[in-house]
Design brief:
Layout lengths: L4 E8 L11 E8 L2 H13 L4 E4 L5 E3 L4 E7 L6 E4 L2 E5 L4 H10 L15 H6 L3 E2 L2 E2 L4 E7 L5 E5 L5 E2 L2 E2 L6 E8 L5 H18 L19 H7 L6 E2 L2 E3 L7 E3 L5 H19 L8 E3 L3
Parallel strand pairs: 2-5, 3-5, 4-18
Antiparallel strand pairs: 1-2, 6-7, 7-14, 8-9, 10-11, 10-14, 12-13, 15-16, 16-17
This protein binds flavin-adenine dinucleotide.
Length: 290
């Protein structure tokens, strides 16, 4: 596999995930180019090896057992090209970096996403959002590699998407994304966003390992308020705890395991169903190795 990029063996996934949970993976590969990635996928198919694509692992809860396969990380796909209001970013670019580069060119649209600790690939696949805006609003087209390892460009019109969802997920590997951004006054936008981000820092446990919001907001009540009303703030299972600061965050307080998190999620869901007849829906993806 050395021919296809940087290869690491026996990688501790816990260290890569924002909630600090995960087991070891046999390999992690960071391809240098689309061609490398295509060849790697051919090789994995030919050798009947499984793989999983990770961005910044900020929206996944990873099994802490052994993964006898290959984690693919697209960190090397990190170019940003700007032509007028058209911005094309590699799947591995982190959103805060993209926002900074855009603001330097007075392109302000993506600034809403400056606090999301995800990559362009992971964020577009999951239609990440903040402050009433979703990233798909600004997408023009997405370059992907499909199940037959063919590279193609899909325009926004051919992607179905909704709240934290796109039809790209599990069907394609995103290679790069082209956005159309509006021009504006970066200083004004920065000051507005900084005020909102400050508020977030004061109300969310951003200093502790987590995957951000754990449940979607049900129709009639924000998930955090519901969980708080049920008296679940501070509830813990093993090292996993419902944050005291914001009830829709589960934090890894003390070496939590995958099972601790899953049991705590189940406990919250059960209470919400029994006491308020509400079915909470999880936001992050739970990844179990086969
Ligand atoms: C402190 C904190 C705050 C957060 N705030 C927000 C917020 O305000 N709004 C919000 O929406 N989210 C938020 N999140 C959640 C998370 O950061 C976002 O969902 C982010 O967009 C996930 O990107 P990622 O690169 O980490 O994806 P990952 O977690 O690595 O992956 C998520 C999914 O996408 C898939 N994937 C990743 N890259 C690719 C690719 N290139 N091609 C195909 N599939 C891919 C993975 O297989 C996985 O299924 C927050 C998380 C934390 C920890």
């Amino acid at each position: 596999m050395d021919n296809y990029g940087i290869v690491l063996e026996n990688v501790n996934l816990k260290e890569l995930s924002t909630i600090n949970i995960g087991g070891k993976a046999k390999y992690l590969v960071r391809p240098f180019s689309y061609v490398d990635l295509g060849k790697l996928l051919d090789f994995l198919d030919d050798n009947n090896m499984q793989y999983y694509v990770l961005g910044n692992a900020s929206n996944v809860i990873l099994d802490d057992g052994y993964f006898d396969g290959v984690i693919i990380k697209l960190d090397e796909f990190n170019d940003i090209e700007i032509e007028g209001t058209k911005v094309t970013a590699g799947a591995g670019v982190m959103l805060p970096k993209l926002v900074n580069v855009c603001l330097q060119k007075e392109l302000v649209s993506l600034a809403f996403f400056s606090m999301i600790p995800g990559t362009v690939g992971g964020s577009v696949v999951g239609n990440a959002g903040a402050y009433g805006h979703e990233i798909m609003e600004y997408v023009k087209e997405v370059k992907v590699i499909d199940k037959n390892h063919k590279i193609k460009t899909i325009s926004k019109e051919d992607i179905s998407f909704g709240y934290r969802y796109t039809s790209l997920k599990d069907n394609y590997i995103v290679l790069s994304v082209t956005f159309i951004c509006e021009k504006g006054n970066p200083l004004e936008v920065l000051s507005e966003i900084q005020t909102r981000n400050e508020k977030r820092k004061n109300t969310q446990p951003l200093d502790k390992p987590s995957v951000g919001s754990i449940f979607r907001n049900p129709e009639d009540i924000p998930a955090g308020r519901l969980i708080e009303e049920l008296g679940l703030k501070g509830t813990s299972v093993g090292g996993a705890m419902v944050s005291e600061k914001h009830a829709n965050f589960i934090v890894n307080e003390n070496n939590a395991t995958f099972d601790d998190i899953i049991k705590l999620i189940d406990k919250i869901k059960k209470e919400c169903k029994e006491k308020r007849n509400i079915d909470l829906v999880l936001e992050p993806t739970i990844v179990r190795w086969k």
